[in-house]
Structure formats: C-alpha cells, structure tokens
Amino acid sequence: MSVKFKACNSCQRNGRLTCRRTRLGEPCLRTYPLECVDLLRRARAAFKAGHTIKESSRLAQLEAVVQMLEEHECDFVQVLGKDLHKPHFETVMSELILVKNEALYAISNLKKWMQPQQVEKNLSTTLDDCFMVNEPLGVVFIVGGWCSPVQMCLVPLVGAIAAGNCAIINPSECTVNTAELLHRLIPLYLNKECFHVILALKNDLPDIVEQKFDHVFFTGTREDGNRIAQAAARTLTPVTLVLASKNPCYVDQHCDIVTTAQRIAWARFHNAGQSLVAPDYILCNKSVQVRFVQAMKCCLMQFFGPNPKESRSFGRIVNADIFNKTKDILWKSGKVAVGGQAIEAEKYIAPTILTDVVDTDLIMQQDVFGPVLPLLTVQNVDEAIAFINKHEKPLCVYAFSNNSEVISQLMNETSSGSFCSNDCVLQSLIVTLPFGGVGTSGTGSYHGRYSFDTFSHKKSCLLRSLRFECVTYLRYPPYEERTLSLMAWASTLSQRGQGWCQIL
After folding, report:
1. Which domains does the chain have, with CATH numbers?
2. 56-68, pLDDT tens digit by residue?
C-alpha cells in the first residue's frame, strides 16, 4: 500500500512547501525561527539560574553523553546506515568512539581546566594576585555538518558542556534519520532546560543566528559559513567556522607507494568521499603518478572487491543534489583512470581516480563531497608548494615522503589548518591537538582543551590590597621625572633570565 505524504499544517500556514514532508497524521519535527526564540529564552533562563555552572553539573552531563552513546550504539549505526549507507565499522570508529573519547578526556581534565590560570607579573604587581578565570559564554548555537553528523554535533557539544554553557544544536537536514534520533535522545539524557535540538533547514539558519546567541559554532561549506558569519556579525556574535576546502596531498618519488596508496585510498573513499578532511587532490610527478594509479587499483580491489557497489564497506552519497553535482564534476574533469560508474537510483558513485587533470578543470574549482580523486602533475616539491600557495589556505595539507627534508619544507612553506605527513585524517581525530581552519577554511579551533577554550571567556583578574600606598603614590600627579624613572623600572618586565631591569 502506498504511503501518503503532505506538508504539515504549520508548514502550510507559513507557506513553506519545500520543508521536510511527513507521513499523514504524524507531527512535523521541523523547527522554525520563531519557535527557536522560546527555546533560546528557556536556555537563557536555565543558564542564569546557574544550572550549568557547577563542576558536578558539567560532569553529570558529560557522563550522560557517554551513557547515551553506549546505550544507543545500535540506533546510531542504524540511522547512519539509512542516511549514508555508512558501514558499522566507520560509524563506531569515526563517530561514536571519537565523541566518547572527547567526553572522557573532558571528564578527566575538567577540574584542571576550571582552575584559575596564574600569569607573569612585574615588580609593581609582585604583591598582587594576577590570574585568568574561565567563564562560560552563555547559550551557544551548534550547527552540525552532514558528513559526520553525530561527531560534528556532539564533539562541539562536549566542549560547550565542559565550559559550562547551555546549547542549542541543529543537526544537518541532509541526514534526516540521524537528526531525528538526536532530537529524540538528547532530551532523555541531558538537562531538558539547558540543551535543545532543533531541526531547521539551512535557509532558516541566518534568521535563527540573528536571535543573538553568545557563540555560534558552524561546520559545513564556505557558502553556508559565509551566510552564518554575516548573520552573526549583525549581532556581534563570535563564531567558530570549520569549512570545506581543497585539501592538497603531495606524493614524493621517495616513498613506499603501496603503503601511500592504501592510506590515501582509505582517507579519500572513507564514507564514500564525504569528508571535510580527506585529501582532495594529489600532486606528484609523472613517473610517480603511473605507479600510484596502479597501486590504487590494487588496494581498491583489496578494499571493496571487483564491484564496490556490492561491498558492505562502501557508502552512498547523502542525497540526489550532491550526487548529481558530484557526477557532473566527475564527467567534466580530466580522464577516468579507475571507476567512474554512477547509479542515480542508489546514489552510488564508484571510487574514481582522474588523471590528466589541470587547475582549470571544474573539479579543482569546486568542493567535492564524493569518492573522486584527481591527480595533477608537478615536477618536484618546489612546484607543489607553489601550486598550493597560489590557492586559498586549505583545512589540511598532506605529504608522503621518506625524506624528512621534503616533509619539513612542505610543513614550513605552506599554511593550512592542519598538516599531516605519511598519513591522512588522523590529525583531526587526536583529542590533544587543536583542529580548525585558517583563512577561507575557517576560524577558531576545537577538540579537547581547545573546545573548552572556544566556549569560554578568559576573564582577566587583578586582586590588590589597599595597603602599600607608600609605593603606589608614585603614579599620582604632580608628575616628576624622578618618579617616572622609578615607575618605569617597576612596571617593565625584564628580559628572560636577566632579573629586573635597573634604573639608568
């Protein structure tokens, strides 16, 4: 029997005919900007009441996140399978364990993070107490991406909780099943007044951002990030942006080509190529390219078999729009050396390698969220660096070489959000390393302590006594040259290891 669909009454009243459609008789879960105002009001009231301030409250919420992931692992595997055809292995490793590690690390270090941080003093403040305290910002808005829809929502949430904030989370509309699972589970585990999940379309996000949060954390494309940043600027709301970019990968002639191909293939074709941190294109010389393509053919056969469409280890494109865009880019760029097959009904694109790609090809002009890897020819590492530096700063730069000088040159002479040698993606998974972009690939960073700092205000504090006026009176008028010399001496920091500077 066919299932009838219609727009819900609220959608019809607001003239929104393109919203997520629901089964007849079921409530629409979508959140509208005006509805978000009430959630924001409730979250602000909860924050002002101090529900998130105490260390014990923060620890309880962090432990609840871990509990939610452990008790509903099967549910997360199921919804990510529906949304992205994501294998169980990838869901557990790249989504659930990553978030769990973030929460456990925050639990272990929260007491230390919350302590005041002492700072260096000069002679005039030597008897005072100078320090910074970490204050929560208030109510933060977290907009998750669809590439990794669980961790892109929950890793920032862990930082917001650890820092003592309330939060409103908006999972991506592209991964409907995952979004609705988060919408259902988070109120069951976290404080219902402090933490909310909304289901809004990306076109509504600027209106929601303008409701004035204390911080906005966004993961996604540059185009959407630009709209979010402009909306936040209108209310002077600080933002963290983690944005898609063209991540280059240089493959040197001095490397183990088989191991290199395996590590790049895993990173590029993981989650069917839908990743912000995967290598976007390969730079290598012509002789390396021939060997690299052959090695990639072998490892793709090893990874996914003769027909990747039948492999339980290979995903699908998230929706028809991104499928069609990726397919068009694929067919208008370079020459297909491996793969190239596309089945629209299944949103399937085979792992594909393109050769004879040039900088003006469409695939080099647009962000690609799909299993397509273009190869460009350069003569040497200097030419590769020049090519990288003439483009916008990427989120990640990768380099494969057994020559440490080549690695150091690429690391030191390029600028990017992160750098990794002889592997890919792993630098973005380490809880003790900050992760974020630079320039057009984003602003700000997160993970571990850096998430805590992102969602905290470092308040400068100076605690003085009313005693010792016999010294501080020197700063008062009428001014004299003699007292200026004394005050300059007392107020100037010394060079390291030289003691206090002397009066001339």
Report:
1. 1-30 (no CATH), 42-244+450-457 (3.40.605.10), 248-432 (3.40.309.10)
2. 999 999 999 999 9
